[in-house]
Amino acid sequence: MRPAPQVPGSGSPRPAANVIRVDLDLLRLSFASDATPLIRVDFTDDAAWHRIITRVTETADFAAPGEEPQEYDPNIDPIDHRSFDGISPMELGAAFQVAGEAPGYALIADARSMSEAAADELTLIYVDLSIDDEEAADLFDSHMGNAFRVAAAEIASIEANLSIANMDFSEFANVADPDGVYRTSLHG
Q: What predicted TM-score, i.e. pTM, was given to this entire model?
């Protein structure tokens, strides 16, 4: 029998099922292509999932009114695999910690996202998977599995800024609205 993996720094075993059931290879492929994985963790509504993909991958225009268009296609890779069913941001972070990896950032489409898919405001969870040690956690004011909800309309801006290291994860997470959802672009 395999011993339960330890979450670094916790001193307590992590339930093996929460770490082993996650197919990290699917995410590694996304990260290797410099994409941000969009991970489906709720499998109750296929139509909602397809609406989410459409909205999150829409071309964004970063131009101010009256300027020439500045279109941007977010580099998002939808991951639709049942090994992620019900996984939380912290469980995802723990899986990468156990693997000794800190690949970047991910998006999660959870039950709330699925229920909002046809609504005016769709939110998803942005997850920090970039923190590999305590020094980085202090430097970047974040931790593995840190997460915040984000309005779908803001994902392209966040993805663009994080992909070029123009801004840190905490700069978005720390300015979420009082209800915990990030809605306002800092650049405009």
A: 0.83
